[in-house]
Amino acid sequence: MIIACPACNTRYAVPDSAIGIDGRSVRCAKCGHSWFQHGPDIPAPESVADPAVQPAPTPTPPPVAEPAAPAASAAAPVESEPRPAAPVPAPPPAASPEPPMVAPVPVEPESAREPEPELPPLPRPVPPVDRPIVASYADDALADRPSSFSHEPPFRPRRNPAKLWMIGAVAFALLASGAAVAIQTFGLPGFIADYSLPFAEVEPDLVIDFPPKKQERRTLPNGTEYFSASGTIRNLSQRAQNVPPMLVVLRDAQDRVVFNWIINPPVEKLEPGQSADFRQAMVDVPRSATSAEIAWAKRN
Q1: Cβ neighbour number for residue 231 with a 10 Å cutoff
Q2: Strand-pair category, 216-219 with 206-209
Q3: Backbone CA torsion sign across 191, 211, 299, 206
Q4: In a 3-state reduction of DSSP, which class is residue 33?
Q5: Is the pLDDT of residue 134 over 60?
Q6: Which of 219, 265, 217 is CA-nearest to residue 242?
Q7: Distances 240 to 177, 200, 229, 267, 275 between C-alpha atoms, Å
Q8: pTM strictly above 0.85
Q9: For residue 246, with 0-12 CB atoms within 10 Å meaning exposed, 13-18 middle and 19 or more buried, which class applies?
Q10: What is the pLDDT of residue 102?
Q11: Domains in the chain and their CATH numbers?
């Protein structure tokens, strides 16, 4: 027989004899719920056919005696025939034995139950302690070798030279482009510009008069910047001197070179005490140019 707890639906397989026909109070072993469990449905026993009782034979009535002659009346009476015994009725059928009754197990009250033992509290986890791993070697020569149990791998990843070259090329391109933009915007630094200019050695016997008042600077109607450089070359020696070309340099307010060009001399040679005037104009000069200077240039 299978019974189920109505509270937690826990199913139990119990023998029919444990519950009995009339049922009994049971208790769930899982949740402790008690209820009355009815007995199993026992089918009605099949009726046993009673053996046919044969009817008792009907007794034959005794023959009626004819009146005897008077002479025979004084004779002794004749005994009548014995009657047949009555039939014995068949014994009644034996009734089916009733199943034994099982006394229900009394359910203990809630107060009579033994209290469940309290479980001890769980131990607290011990926090891990970070301690350095100290390894000792039986042979001191093994101490310099990388350990197989170290937290670092005993090898290093192989470098990729192509990747390093690519990173260097990208960095150089960025620096070069930044320098080009800076030179385009602000010009070369003064020391670099002066070093790169094709200045020649000083000519002690030739002097260039380049007064600022004679330099002409104006803006043309089409918006182009115009600059005219003019001056005088003098030979102060007592002999003839070959005249080299001249270099005109324009600087901005920060004394940076923003423009330069070469002026060819008006004459190739000057006699002692002789002088020669020169004048040359340039357009599209930078607007940031604020001053001009002149010096001897290298000969070609």
Answers
A1: 19
A2: unpaired
A3: negative
A4: coil
A5: no
A6: 265
A7: 50, 19, 25, 12, 11
A8: no
A9: buried
A10: 46
A11: 1-40 (no CATH), 191-296 (2.60.40)
